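Subject: for your reference before the review

Hello V.,

The reviewers asked for a structural picture of the protein, and I figured it would be easier to keep everything in one thread rather than splitting it across files. Below is the amino acid sequence we used in the manuscript, unchanged from the supplementary table.
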Amino acid sequence: MSVKRLSATSLYKALLLVLISIFSFSGKLNAQDGEKLFKANCAACHTITDKKLVGPGLQGINDKREKEWLHKWIKNSQELIASGDADAIAVFEENGKVVMPPQPLSDAEIDAVLDYIANPPADQAPKQEASEEGTTAAQPQGEDNSFLILGIIIVVLIILVGLLRSTQVSLAKVVKEKTGDEEIVINETWGDSIRGLVSKNKGWVALFIAIMVILGAKDVWDALLSIGVHEGYKPEQPIKFSHKIHAGLDKIDCNYCHSSARHSKTSGIPSLNVCMNCHKFIDGTDGKTFEYNGKTYPMPEEIEKIYKHLDYNKETGKYGDNPTPVKWVKVHNLPDHAYFNHSQHVVAGKQKCQKCHGPVEEMDVVYQHAPLTMGWCINCHRETAVADKGNGYYEEFHARLTDELKEKYLKDGKLTVDEIGGLECAKCHY
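And here is what came back from the structure prediction:
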């Protein structure tokens, strides 16, 4: 290799090393996609712990089942059951014969999900600290330093390129002085080196630019998709109300406090008179404490806040004339252009609160469990069977179906929401 080509060639090799490093690092980033895939396709029915949601908890699933079996089950559980697989039949029966819908995931995507289940981030949303003011969104799950690390790698490689270039220029000068060869070209500036590199490697440079544009476009797209998505949002409330105590330990039905969920579009925030049905008698004088967001608090202090807002004197049992509202912080927020009706889902759909809100009975501080994106809702409508048992409307609906339509819509043994028009745009946007 002649000296006049040495500088540009070395720069080319160094920049190629940068590109290879970016590709290698991108591969590592792709391993994190398992978390996104799990949340989009699995989190509505499963947890990565041993807690059962709709389906069983998936903790240790990689040790319990063979990888090949898991791939078959995830892609089409009913097909595996129909094949007579004993394990598949056992799992189906153990979970009340609830049908797991087929998942349109590739082998690589399934592997990413299984890897996420086996090696979840240390910080999961339920364990995150809430903001003291109760208005700040929770930090993303698991601290992601990937871009910082990538930036450091690029800076280090650029420094190495600079040192290499300086060495090559010095060597070229020495050779030129000793040999007197006027054909040896010395690129004195970075601009000369870059222009020489580009002119001799136009194809590779074009490929490099195209790859950078594609990766940049992907990052922009991902950023746009995250707008308005507040999964893990966990504000602290003005009164430290623990759902873990009320819905979990005390087994109070969600609809007792959120009674309008059966009759209205909104589930409603219970008024304090509902609290007083119990706390007129349970006043905390027994000195009990409770856990809230990882800290221990005396129960009487929080119950006193209820009395203060109601201007209630527990000694006389009388209410004053100066009640004040509790400024609760709303956790689950849908955009104004999306219509959601609680009563339609709770009464007609017979859906459990946990389907959207997660295991509330295990939460002291309630947080947003699901992403509540359009894609998440669509997946639910595709997977969820219509509650048609004992419903005369659907019995008539089935009776009117032709054999051809029965074969089309009931071949999997259930009628899903999307099959009765649940994906039609005007259902949610009008």
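For the response letter, the relevant points are probably these. The CA atoms of residues 40 and 376 lie 6 Å apart. The chain is about 50% helix and 5% strand.

Happy to draft the paragraph if you're swamped.

O.
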